[in-house]
Model the fold of this input.
Amino acid sequence: MSDLKALMLASPRRTLAVAESLTCGRLQARIGSVSGASEFFLGGITAYSLEEKVRHLGVDRAEATAVNSVSARVAEQMARGACVLFGSDAGIGTTGYSEPSTAWHVDEPYAWWGLALRQPGGDYAVHHGRVDLAGLARVDAQERAAAAALDGLVSWLRERAAGRRT
Done:
C-alpha cells in the first residue's frame, strides 16, 4: 500500500477519489488505512443503485440498465464520475456481483474495476479489469474486488511512470 502513496505523490502529484458499488466502502477503507492518505485521497461515494450511479456519477442510464450496472464501461464511467464529483486527478470505480444472481443468469460472482486519470486538456484516460470471485463468500468477494481494484491502479500508475501508456 505504501506504493500507492508514493505513486500518487510522485511528480506529477495526483489526487484520488472512489466510486463504489459492489465493494460498498471497502476500497475507501483500504485507501484510508494508508498512513498519510489525506495527502492524496479526497473521498468516495457508495452508489449502490442505478439511480445514484446516474445522478451522482453521470453513468449512462440506458447502457447501465442493459447490463444491470455491471460492465467494464460502467466501472470506467463510475471512476470518471468520481473524478468529476470530487475534482480529483484519478478515480476508481467498482461494480459487480458478490453472489450468484439467478435474475441476471450469473452463476459465479465477478467484478469489474475501472480507472480514470485526468489528462492535460481535461480528458480522461481509462483502464479496467475483471476479477473472478467464484467460491468466495459475499464479504470475501467484496474484499477481493477492492484489493484487485487497488492493485490495478498501482500497476497502471507504475506503467505510466515507466513511460508505457496503456
About this structure: Residues 138-161 form the longest helix (24 residues). The chain is about 40% helix and 20% strand. The chain has a mean pLDDT of 95. The helical segments are 2-9, 26-32, 50-57, 61-66, 72-86, 138-161.
